[in-house]
User: What shape does this take?
Amino acid sequence: MYIDVYGDTLCALVSAAGLAATGHNVSLHVPQGPAATTLARGGCPYREPGLPEMLAEQTTAGRFKLARVDVPPDEKSTMIWLALSPTDMDQAFQIIKGLPVDGERSWLLVNQSTFPVGSTEALQQALKDLPGGESTQRVAASLPDLLIEGAAVSGFIHAEQWILGCDSDWGKRMVAEALRPFNRRRDNIMIMGPREAEFTKLAVTGMLATRLSFMNDMANLADMLDVDIERVRQGMGKDKRIGESYLYPGCGFGGLSFSQDVMSLASTLQHSGIQAQLLDQVLRINERQKESLFRKLWRYYGTDLRGRKVAIWGVAFKPESARIDNAPALKLIEALWAQDVEVHVHDPRALPALAEWAGPRDDLVLHKDQYAALVDADALMLVTEWSAYMSPDLPHMKGSMKQPLILDGRNIWDPTFMKQNGFDYFGIGRR
Amino acid sequence: MTDAKETQWDELITHGSVVSKQHLADYFAEDPERFNKMHRQFGPLLYDFSKQRLTDQTLKHLIDLADAHDLQGWIQRLFSGEEVNDSEGRAAMHWALRLPVDAKCQVGDDDITSQVHEQLQHMELIVDKIRAGQWRGATGEVITDVINIGVGGSDLGPLMVTEALNDFTRKTPQGLNVHFASTIDGSQLSQLLRDKKPQSTMFVISSKSFTTIDTLTNASTALQWLQRSFGRRASASILHCHFIGVSASPHKMTEWGIAEENQLGFWGWVGGRYSLWSAIGLPIALKIGVKGFRRLLAGAHDMDEHFKSAPWRDNLPVLMGMIGVWNTNVLDINALSILPYDGRLKQLPLYFEQLEMESNGKSVKRDGQPVTRSTCPIIWGDVGPNAQHAFYQLLHQGTEAVTCDFIVPVRRYDEARHHEAAEELAAQHQLSLANCLAQSRLLALGDAALKDADELPTHMRYRGNQPSSTLLLDELNPYSLGALIALYEHKVFVQSVIWDVNPFDQWGVEMGKKIAMSTLAKIRGEDASLEDTDSSSAGLLRRIEAEWKS
Assistant: This one.
């Protein structure tokens, strides 16, 4: 089949590469931006195991090629595949408007983007509104992105299950045909309505976010009760009914897809007049959690931070990312600035994004060397758990800092060991 | 009193003896142009006094009376910073609080404009930090609730304006709430403390002298509430993070424990009931933002300029003040009802009660002699449509002559044009407007407003001839509200000139506070003697003592 995939998300790249690998002819339409530049140079914008190799192989094989978003799909194509960022709903409608409809052309749109519930139906209507909508097939189906980062490629090729939201028999057959290579052992496509599929995706993210906020809530209690949350977490994780994933307490979660997914679920429900009470709280707890390191610092220095200098390690919303969307570090930095604190930041990849977000200011200094950020600092805040931070040069750190105060937002260091090395150490739910 | 003044009074009263026999219905029947002649517009305010019991000749007499009392000279003295508050030996320069930044105002050695704007900027910093969600409590939590503790001018003004401008609330990330606690018995405070979190609540302690017992008692309750939660050792953090002081007495604030950077100042020359334009207005700025607060100041400033420069015949505060004098001293009407037809102005009657009665409720002239004529009438009111179900009966059919000020915005729910419920709500406002006009018409015309009134039984008939003014605001917004309040401030000043009283002191409220202190000692059993009091108070004290002992 000829398939046109739109987007620069991880999902877009994995889907495009995966489909090409089974023989489909795939055009990936990439919006302008850093990801497009990297791809055009033959690179891969995501450090996802197996993905760069797969892209390279399929490019060489001639089944994977890049295109601009405003270039119409291949003339043999009937299927377009959207994996846009959650904020790019307008772009989806633009893409539909640009579809060629000459010669009674049928269109199937597979939507993997995380848009508000009901969006796939709206996209289908837009397809039907194009000329020739009565005499041809115009279908939009929802195929939620359920990939797990770090295992995205194998997750696509050996998917446990697909959730397909589609009301049309033609559409179901087409998607099943496209996915047939990944669906051989047993039929693992679960079919439901488009709204139900979209809602399932949102419910999944909502549940994961709830687990994290729950753990953060527990960690805050642990702080009060002088309990080490790490032991509690391990104990909980051993219970089969609970499992180990998404139990790490920390200084809040960010990221465009994660927090926006949650938000769009909350706003979807709010718009309908129903209050998503639990999710509303989950979001509030998370926003509050993003300032947890600030509160520890505030109390440590007796509610006066004027003129202090604070180092932050890691501003990306997660390790291995160059992005800072909704990252906890941003809220922290704003809180520090408001108290006249000078902020010194190190991050292996996200400094350009941070510089763009902050604009030129005197109270923000960006450092390429993680230890340079510590010179004369009154505290170090560890916000993103990059591997390079896991086992740092402690004597060097202590020698550089004005006050050896460590606020560990990801519990990556051992409290006892840090104290032995002469630091004042505070984690999330442990010290 | 000089002869010129007496002559003008005599002429006015002679003229009044003729006019007072006329019925308003006749005036309207005689002259279809009456409204056109008897309304004035300034900025967003239309002042209609055609339903007052007066003629064009009356206005001429009133203007002559104002001139005979040197109104121009007094306005000049007020606006040049002279000590018009002679019993307290200071100026009254609330008008200076609303000067634009580029205005020149030098009094003695003081550059008043720069002092005012320095405090305004300090307030802006504090307001912006709180509104941005960056003002932190002792534990680092974001402040979400601000409780204003103050009484009198430190309460009524900010409370009235924040309620009136509720539609102009600017959203904040944390969802900021502003509350007010005033009464000495802690009624509002206890209610508020029940469901607020100490970690995210802060207090604004507002008191001009910073010795007001009502306010300091509430403040100390607030402090103890925080100390119970954070521990006494945290006192420095509590004071640093949870208290802002607004006062004309910095050292008293420091003495109480307000951190220096949390002190907002104003000056002796701002009277309490004229102080909402100063940092006392902090709760207003918290609610509508500093930009909105500046619009409020701009509306008042433009009214100041109008008052200073417009000829008496077109000068809203002068007309309003002099018509009040006419009603009080010539028509013997000793009650004024303030009737806003807009629920957002619920507190406005209370605010004007203080402004007018505390200013002009005096019976001693500036020279220490007793007054020979009536001064400030009794002022009360409520939201008009609600008052219709309460005291309008008396207005229409009672034995008392009462004059009314109807206050109503023309446009409302405009800002919510795209709101789903805008249409229904706009219809409700039309109903309110209709009621306002109907009531003033019936009060003025009486039976003449009805068809075939002669056939009705007497208890269903209306005497009419109750005079009223109507103030139409284009819409209620920070600017128009600023102009409206300043209009009444200057009206009060105009009347004080005619009555020759000092509108800026309030000696009548002092002694009660002192007696309360000696009475408190008796209630607490620190002073057992009851002989130095009267038998009524002694009897009541014994009953109270019995209860507190058990």
